[in-house]
Amino acid sequence: MMKDEGLEPDVVTYGIVINAYCKSKKYDEALEIFRGAILAKNLKPSPHIYCSLIHGLGTEKRLNEAIDFFEQSKISGFVPELPTYNALVGVYCWSEMV
Questions:
Q1: Burial 73-91 (b: 16+ CB within 10 A, else e)
Q2: Class for the domain spanning 3-94
Q3: What is the pLDDT of residues 32-75, one digit of tens each?
Q4: Which end of the chain has the least Cβ crowding within 10 Å, N or C?
Q5: What's the CA gap between 60 and 41, in Å, rounded?
Q6: Alpha-carbon gap, residue 91 to 53, rounded angstroms
Q7: pTM for this one?
Q8: Long-range contacts of range 21-24, CB-CB < 8 Å, 24 or more positions apart?
Q9: Alpha-helical regions (H) of 4-46
Q10: Where do the PPR repeats lie (predicted)?
């Protein structure tokens, strides 16, 4: 739709879509947007995007992927904040590793 109007989605737009996919439990679609749109276009993901993916993948008990995104967020230069740590703790709880 946006592209039909000559508008190019930005990282905020993609973040909203990723968050919506995660809330709808469509994690593979969220990952497809992350990899196929954000990374492919060299956009810098926001902490919010990482937190959405960590939380979403954690609820699905996809522990290794969630932890990978936590590590990627730190490598990207983001200092983890309270929501990110909350999501990470949730990942361990949902995976029953606590």
A1: beeeebebeeebeebbeeb
A2: mainly alpha
A3: 999 999 989 999 999 999 999 999 999 998 999 999 999 999 99
A4: N
A5: 27
A6: 11
A7: 0.88
A8: 21/56, 22/52, 22/53, 22/55, 22/56, 23/56
A9: 11-23, 27-33
A10: 10-45, 46-80
